């Protein structure tokens, strides 16, 4: 028995509509339509082009080459949302998490609820753009009848049905991780209108049917997948045993381990580790590392073409290792802007050689990201008491051989790279389980491991040079 399943996967840098033919022992990608995701700055605010993305989704569905779809699921980046009025109309345009509107309100929120209490309830790392801070800076809250996170918003437009998928709700800072519900306590303490938060849906639950105006596949059942893209990506990690760490490597590097229960220790909070909800009650115990944003934003500053990336990485690989490193999680790197200039400034401030050429900047970014991966994985293992005999790198970054090799070198743990489209495959896997084609998470992971191309990187060199480079960074 097999089925044709589609995933709509919206990443911060690109989206895709991906279809696959799935059965108990097959997972064949049959089509991918990709489109760029370009933020738009308008009147001083950075927005997502949400209607452009919706149009691209419809276009992608139009191009699906299959007589019928058995199911469709939607995932995207976390945290961001659209507001609907009482008639279901979008109010304003969703704001990008890199917009700086929350800078002024973080302290205000913490005066109402302490960071310690926030962590006890939500288990979430502090990121200045988490939904609760965005809502504190939201001008349209009074007019809003419903808040929908981005995948739930796309799902609403495609089906007419509203809901809040659980894995993504767990990234808002308003979700009680222990109870698995919206947190009445936090919603009340922050004076938010409780009625705007829709009922929760578990990954795998039905989420309506495609409306006729969604195109040829009108009537197709939509399934609530693990709609936080990172939750879907980690569901599709091709792990064959229990002792693994992972890095979902794209715009962000989400680096950590999977646990069966939240870890709410003060040490974990101090290290800014998060407990995000995954499939089947799993927890992603991880930290955000700034990720390939550092590279893509440098390429944007240079007006480089995507085709230039391979050559630049090749030149960077030929340069000496660890000449200059920066802390990838420096908040100065978060907003859009001239990334090479910001990197140069930090190198100068820490008394290191300033990268002069583009290849030197790229090398600095790769070494710095590998250091960030090393710190996050070491701490995840220490704080969770788990072990890892492999680090799985999934997402677009799995194609970056230099970064995969440096991550193996820096962590001292073998790296298995792939699949590149882990998020869409995790999205599809949860649907396949709802259709009864796959029994559960371990079988999904075995299926991914058996069917998708993977690359292996063994650690080289000693830890000494990485220790020395880490010492150059401010603590
Ligand atoms: P997101 O979901 O956050 O948009 P992706 O998982 O799609 O991110 O990964 C995008 C990143 O993958 C890009 O920023 C780029 O650095 C990297 N990437 C894409 N294609 C290649 C390639 N051919 N070689 C190396 N890296 C690549
Ligand atoms: C990755 C991601 C990540 C969040 C960030 C906002 O795309 O969902 O897990 O922290 O975007």
Automatic annotation (TrEMBL):
GO terms for biological process: glycerol metabolic process; rhamnose catabolic process. Keywords: ATP-binding, Disulfide bond, Kinase, Nucleotide-binding, Rhamnose metabolism, Transferase. InterPro entries: ATPase_NBD, FGGY_C, FGGY_N, Rhamnulokinase. It comes from the Bacteria. One of its GO terms (cellular component) is cytosol. Residues 245-434 form the Carbohydrate kinase FGGY C-terminal domain. PANTHER family: L-RHAMNULOKINASE, SUGAR KINASE. This is Rhamnulokinase. It comes from Herbidospora galbida.
């Amino acid at each position: 028995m097999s089925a044709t399943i589609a995933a709509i996967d919206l990443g911060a840098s690109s989206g895709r509509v991906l279809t696959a033919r799935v059965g108990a022992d097959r997972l064949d990608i049959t089509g991918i339509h990709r489109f760029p995701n370009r933020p738009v700055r308008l009147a001083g605010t950075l927005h997502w082009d949400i209607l452009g993305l919706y149009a691209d989704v419809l276009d992608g569905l139009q191009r699906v080459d299959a007589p019928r779809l058995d199911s469709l699921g939607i995932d995207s980046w976390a945290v961001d949302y659209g507001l609907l009025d009482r008639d279901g109309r979008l109010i304003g345009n969703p704001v990008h998490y890199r917009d700086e509107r929350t800078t002024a309100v973080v302290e205000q929120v913490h005066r109402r609820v302490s960071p310690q209490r926030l962590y006890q309830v939500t288990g979430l790392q502090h990121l200045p753009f988490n939904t609760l801070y965005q809502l504190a800076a939201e001008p349209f809250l009074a007019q809003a009848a419903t808040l929908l996170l981005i995948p739930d918003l796309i799902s609403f437009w495609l089906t007419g049905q509203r809901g809040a998928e659980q894995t993504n709700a767990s990234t808002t800072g308003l979700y009680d991780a222990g109870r698995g519900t919206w947190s009445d306590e936090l919603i009340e303490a922050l004076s938010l209108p409780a009625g705007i938060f829709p009922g929760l849906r578990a990954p795998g639950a039905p989420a309506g049917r495609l409306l006729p105006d969604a195109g040829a596949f009108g009537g197709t059942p939509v399934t609530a997948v693990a709609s936080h893209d990172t939750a879907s990506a980690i569901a599709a990690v091709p792990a064959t045993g229990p002792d693994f760490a992972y890095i979902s490597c794209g715009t962000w590097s989400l680096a950590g381990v999977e646990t069966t229960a939240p870890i709410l220790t003060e040490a974990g909070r101090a290290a800014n580790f998060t407990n995000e909800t995954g499939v089947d009650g799993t927890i992603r115990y991880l930290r955000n590392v700034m990720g390939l944003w550092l590279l893509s934003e440098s390429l944007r500053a240079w007006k480089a073409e995507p085709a230039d990336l391979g050559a630049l990485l090749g030149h960077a690989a030929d340069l000496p290792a660890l000449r200059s490193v920066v802390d990838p999680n420096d908040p100065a790197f978060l907003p859009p802007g001239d990334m090479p200039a910001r990197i140069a400034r930090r190198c100068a401030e820490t008394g290191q050689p300033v990268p002069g050429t583009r290849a030197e900047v790229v090398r600095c970014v790769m070494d710095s990201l590998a250091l960030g991966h090393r710190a996050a994985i070491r701490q995840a293992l220490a704080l969770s008491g788990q072990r890892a005999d492999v680090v799985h790198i999934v997402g677009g970054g799995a194609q970056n051989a230099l970064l995969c090799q440096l991550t193996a070198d820096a962590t001292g743990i073998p790296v298995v790279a792939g699949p590149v489209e882990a998020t869409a495959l995790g999205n599809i896997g949860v649907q396949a389980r709802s259709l009864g084609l796959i029994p559960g998470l371990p079988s999904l992971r075995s299926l991914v491991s058996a069917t998708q191309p993977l690359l292996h990187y063994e650690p080289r060199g000693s830890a000494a040079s990485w220790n020395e480079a880490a010492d150059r960074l401010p603590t």
